[in-house]
Amino acid sequence: MTRASDAVGAAAALPTAIPVSDPELADRLAGRLALVDAALDEAVASTDALADDASRHLIAAGGKRFRPLLTLLAGELGDGADPRLVDAAVVVELTQVASLYHDDVMDSAPVRRGAPSVHSVWGNTVAILVGDLLFARASALVAGLGPEAVVLQSRTFERMCLGQLHETTGPAAGADAVEHYLKVLSDKTASLLATSARLGAMFGGCSEPIVEAVTGYGEKVGVAFQLADDVLDVASSGDESGKTPGTDLREHVPTMPVLLLRRRVERGEATPSDIELLARLDGDLSDDAALASVVADLREHGVLAETRELAVRWAREAAAELAPLPEGPVKQAFDDLATALADRAV
């Protein structure tokens, strides 16, 4: 992998975290992403005023369009010109947004993409129903892409639901919480990234080895992304990560550093200070000073370094999946993304 900082220039034109160093590729992707945005606007339109307003809420808030761009980028491994690529990109973004409407209800999240969450504006019932509506729109659109795409989307959504379910219920008695967490990340987040890349390669007309390679890449990049996010929740400044350090800790959301610390305690491998830190993490962190204290201690703890190592390993394994891809700017963009995720965790 090359350094992600080497990807410069036209990448700035893309509203995304994917670095694209080739100006011509960046221009093509930016143009097609504009088509995706227009198609998204059309896909969520409704004659019902409430449904229209609530459906447009998160779409209008923007976002990085990470999943649609993965679809478009993978399509570039073929001819990149099939109009179904735009529809496929819309499908994955609608599926993602539908899941966010539901997630925010379950998490009681007040803000999403810098805007008030839908449930905080219209209430939980409306948020859930509009999430269902958006998934229905995605299902109608994917039907036009053929049976293989329909089956792929349904299996992906099943995995996303199972990931959320297993995150909510936690690991079974006697199960390894760390392995359980990695499976949650794979199902809840990485599955849709894998499908996004797979649809792009499929409708780009790529060979089966290329389709499988980008699918495996998307799966591993998704896990790397979430592990890097766990690092940033502890290690970054608010300006760097876009959220207050320790937000997940305050909400007692399971993250890898805490799970690794808990495993040490459960296995009898913990020091007295480890046990005391875990007790504080499990306690009331509503006070800013209490939160800042555990964040500072966790930053210096070995479990954060372990999480960094895991994130880098998953990013490198993602990059290794790219071996069958032809050399060129598309492969370089995929590789730069994996490198950026590794860099983000270090």
CATH homologous superfamily designation: Farnesyl Diphosphate Synthase
Portion of residues within helices = over 70%
> Which structural class matches the secondary elements?
mainly alpha
Number of helices: 16
CATH architecture: Orthogonal Bundle
Report the CATH topology name: Farnesyl Diphosphate Synthase
Would you list the SSEs in sequence order as H and E? HHHHEEHHHHHHHHHHHH
Low-confidence stretches: 1-15
Keywords: Magnesium, Metal-binding, Transferase
Protein name: Heptaprenyl diphosphate synthase
Enzyme class: transferase
Cofactor: Mg(2+)
Task: Outline the structure in words.
Strand 1 (111-112) and strand 2 (115-116) form a beta hairpin. With 346 residues, this protein is an all-alpha fold. The chain has 16 helices and 2 strands. Helix 4 runs antiparallel to helix 6. It is globular and about 60 Å long. Strands 1-2 form a two-stranded antiparallel ribbon. 47% of the residues are buried. The protein has one domain (4-345): Farnesyl Diphosphate Synthase.
